[in-house]
Amino acid sequence: MLPRLLLGPLAAAPLPLPLPLRRRLAVAGGIRAMSSAAPAPSQRSRRPLRGVVFDMDGTLTVPVIDFPAMYREVLGGDAAYAAARAAGGGSVDILHCIEDWPPEKQRHAYEVIARFEKEGLDRLQIMPGASELCGFLDSKQIRRGLITRNVKDAVDLFHQRFGMTFAPALSREFRPYKPDPAPLLHICSTWNIPPHEVIMIGDSLKDDVVCGKRAGAFTCLLDETERYGPHDSLPEEVKPDFKVSSLTEVFTVLEENFDLAPASAE
What Gene3D superfamilies does this protein's entry cite (predicted)? Predict the structure, then answer.
């Protein structure tokens, strides 16, 4: 894994944003405190950022799938769900759970998952701040990619419905999927950009943050409801470089901590 640098807030004022974005940021509040292990860098020590990779469900889109209900149906009831949660340290990786099941049982599990996902697509909503953030990245010529454990049809519908295109956009048909770093490394290779000039943004510690850290990229956790607790309380092995409560806070993270170099820069 490439060396990592935990960046602290900079003294320099952020670059001016369009008025609507400034209003959003004023409402959103400050950025979550980062690890204090490293000293705050100077203006000259800002790291270049040439690509941003997003999770989709719960990050670019509002969470609408009832995952506990889906897990109970796939696994066979409350007891099986509780056992899977206990084995996973409080969380369930359903794709990993069914990976070694017999073909017929696995087929039924995927049918259940597909049904819940389709119901979610019918209620698909874009996350507040996502469109503005993507426009900001485009204005800086920063590449945008996407990695999701959802199916390709969901990604295609997302692109079509909201007019936002991410390339590459990797669904769970790409193996291995998150938290393995392979999809993120594939995107970096496609872009010809090293992972340490890319940031992974997602709402899951075990999938998005671990994927980014394993690949050697910067990581940003979107935690709207503080379900993971304060940044300093997170275990070091899964602690993201940044933690925000909304996508509007990402503007400040990027402008205060990175040199936003175009993807074509050498």
Answer: 1.10.260.80, HAD superfamily/HAD-like
Tell me phi and psi for residue 160, to 5 degrees.
-70, -45
What distance in Å separates the CA atoms of residue 30 and residue 9, rounded to the nearest whole number? 11
**Cα 60 to chain center, whole Å?**
8
Catalytic residue (choose from 57, 93, 203, 223): 57
Contact 10, 46 (CB under 8 A): yes
Q: Please state, in angstroms and rounded to a whole number, the distance separating the CA atoms of residues 144 and 12.
A: 26
Strands 198-202 and 218-222: parallel
Point out the catalytic residue in the list 55, 93, 223, 241: 55
207 assigned to active site:
no
Does the reported pTM lie above 0.70?
yes
Choose between 194 and 80: higher pLDDT: 194
* Partner residues linked to 202 by β-bridges: 221
